[in-house]
């Protein structure tokens, strides 16, 4: 689909309404929470499909925050438009995830250096081999430094972006990734990293562990309002 003008089919913002750096949680209510808690003078630029987006300032610097929904088709649409139609340079996903490695604990913050995937998303690029979706090193380095300066523990490593949440063979599926050292599972980073690579832009996925086998999962309200350590690290990258 050829499209070079704004607003788009999914975003009522005009060119210039969105900052060069966008923080993106899956949940649009988490985007609203971040805008109201951390940003000065936030202005809502999108309500289409209730995928809320806001632009304000943080420490005097323009920043936007917008939900991206669940799964690679959803994050693929929103990030493609931000990179290619709205001149966004940096997208930082701040999401929730499930622990895979036994030593990964509830509420641990993971920085996704690479994103394995079982998705067919890369087929759209018609590549002659297997593409390795990776984060932008500059954003990884800055995120680690920001976490250390704030005394917030983080782990950097590989994650898995899956297409299926309810899996008939979940144990077998997870065991394979455990053997390869993958830390956690989520559903969006690989598509974000591919879109960033294709557009020549920067991307990073930071996730907070919201559930783990044998532990009580976090509630929707907890995921919306209590993952502030990850939010503070992301805002430090603006």
Overview of this protein structure:
This protein is α/β, with parallel strands linked by helices. The chain has a single domain, classed as Rossmann fold (3-Layer(aba) Sandwich). The chain is 31% helix and 26% strand. It has seven helices and nine strands, in the order E-H-E-E-E-H-E-E-H-E-H-E-H-E-H-H. Strands 5-8-7-6-9 form a five-stranded mixed barrel, surrounded by four helices. Helix 2 (72-85) packs parallel to helix 5. The radius of gyration is 17 Å and the shape is globular. The two termini are 31 Å apart. The mean pLDDT is 95. It catalyses: uridine + phosphate = alpha-D-ribose 1-phosphate + uracil. This is Uridine phosphorylase. Residues 21-229 form the Nucleoside phosphorylase domain. It is an enzyme of class 2 (transferase). It holds the Pfam family PNP_UDP_1.
Task: Give a quick summary of the entry.
With 238 residues, this protein is of the alpha/beta class.
Summing up helix and strand content along with how strands pair, one would put the structural category as: alpha/beta
Instruction: Using the alpha-carbon principal axes, give the shape.
Output: globular
Give the strand content.
25-35%
Strand order of the largest sheet: 5-8-7-6-9
Q: What CATH architecture label applies?
A: 3-Layer(aba) Sandwich
In the predicted model, the low-confidence regions spanning at least 5 consecutive residues are none
Overall pLDDT level = 95
Q: How do the SSEs run, as a string of H and E? A: EHEEEHEEHEHEHEHH
Could you say how many structural domains there are in total?
1
CATH topology: Rossmann fold
Name of the level-1 CATH class: Alpha Beta
Summarize the main sheet.
5 strands, mixed, barrel
Question: Care to count the β-strands?
Answer: 9
Count of helical regions: 7
How would you name the CATH homologous superfamily? Nucleoside phosphorylase domain
Q: Write down the oligomeric state.
A: single chain
Q: If you compute it from the alpha carbons, what radius of gyration comes out, rounded to the nearest whole angstrom?
A: 17 Å
- Distance between the ends: 31 Å
Protein name: Uridine phosphorylase
Domain Nucleoside phosphorylase: 21-229
Enzyme class: transferase
EC number: 2.4.2.3
């Amino acid at each position: 689909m050829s499209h070079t003008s704004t607003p788009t089919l999914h975003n009522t913002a005009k060119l210039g309404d969105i900052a060069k750096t966008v923080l993106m949680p899956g949940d649009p209510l988490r985007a609203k929470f971040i805008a109201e808690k951390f940003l000065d003078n936030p202005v809502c630029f999108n309500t289409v499909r209730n995928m809320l987006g806001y632009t304000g300032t943080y420490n005097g610097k323009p920043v936007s925050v917008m939900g991206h929904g669940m799964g690679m088709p959803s994050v693929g649409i929103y990030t493609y438009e931000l990179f290619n139609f709205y001149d966004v340079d940096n997208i930082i996903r701040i999401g929730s995830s499930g622990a895979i490695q036994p030593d990964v604990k509830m509420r641990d913050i993971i920085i996704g250096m690479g994103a394995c995937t079982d998705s067919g998303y890369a087929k759209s690029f018609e590549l002659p081999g297997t593409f390795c979706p990776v984060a932008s090193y500059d954003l990884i380095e800055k995120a680690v430094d920001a976490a250390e300066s704030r005394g917030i523990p983080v782990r950097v490593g590989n994650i898995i972006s899956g297409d299926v949440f309810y899996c008939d063979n979940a144990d077998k599926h997870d065991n394979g990734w455990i053997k390869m050292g993958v830390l956690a599972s989520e559903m969006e980073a690989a598509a974000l990293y591919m879109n960033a690579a294709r557009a020549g832009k920067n991307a990073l996925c930071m996730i907070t562990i919201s559930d783990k086998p044998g532990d009580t999962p976090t509630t929707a309200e907890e995921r919306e309002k209590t993952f502030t350590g990850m939010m503070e690290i992301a805002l430090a990258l603006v």
